[in-house]
Amino acid sequence: MAVIDTSARAIVDGTYRTRPLNSGGDADDILEGITAAARALGTDHGRQWAVAVPGPFDFVEGIAQYSDVGKFDALYGIDLRARLAAALAANAVSFTFVNDADAFALGEHAAGAARGLSRFCCVTLGTGVGSGWVVDGERTDGAAPGGELHLLEFEGQRIEARMSRRAIRAAYARRTRLAAAVPDVREIADLARSGDPVAREVLEDAFSYLGRALADPLSRFEAEALIVGGTIARSWDLLEPPLSAGLGRPGLPVIRAELSHEAPMIGAACAAEGALLDSQVF
């Protein structure tokens, strides 16, 4: 969490706060974790709150719709706007909820790798495939169902069946016949750099597949560039070549995101900027 100066498109120095949050905990624990971090920001801000959250979520009403998604399931059906407003003694209308992938894309447009672009797609690669589509600084659904690339099917399966943390680890386990102690993606990337042919093939397969899957949506959207962020993008040396080859569009820039934790906070603030006075809190 942080106080955001929306005119500077930046976190106000000294205001960034982070706390561990157990996404598998009960509702009270999750909400207390969020509100405790918010209280730590003090009161020297505009008392407008932008909250970047993953879907499924009713962003207009502020109601969580998580069910069997593996995180925040305990929040299902809870009115987060009402609960957070009560806990923080805030006005309920001061809360704006923004999809976290959209917020990341908007943050990159405001202060990161997408500055100056008018039409682009931003994907975040980690647990799954997040996506944000931006035209002239506003989020759109782009060329994916509801704007969500993870709902897109390609070559007979959902994208995340081949390109996600779970899928990459499972592919490595199958090819090496590991039944336990399967390395995480970062460790698989290290193995690939050290000459492990299976690790390199697994990553190349996943990233090339993603490129092929994105080729048509990006073409239909007439994207100027593809921005790539998330934890898996840290292995850029292994990611970019097969991804670009899979896209098959040499003239389309594939750009690594410049921001990390700042992007969704700045982006959420930008999405809610019409309701702001001097600053925005995420």
TrEMBL record:
Keywords, in A-Z order: Kinase, Transferase
Q: Decide whether keyword Kinase is in the record.
A: yes
Which Gene3D superfamilies does its entry note?
3.30.420.40
- The answer on whether this UniProt entry bears the keyword Transport reads no
- Which SUPFAM superfamilies has this protein been placed in? Actin-like ATPase domain
Q: Write the signal peptide boundaries.
A: none
Question: What is a GO molecular function of this protein?
Answer: glucokinase activity
**What InterPro entries is this protein classified in?**
ATPase_NBD, ROK
Q: What EC designation does it have? A: 2.7.1.2
The family annotation for this protein states:
Belongs to the ROK (NagC/XylR) family.
Protein name in the entry: Glucokinase
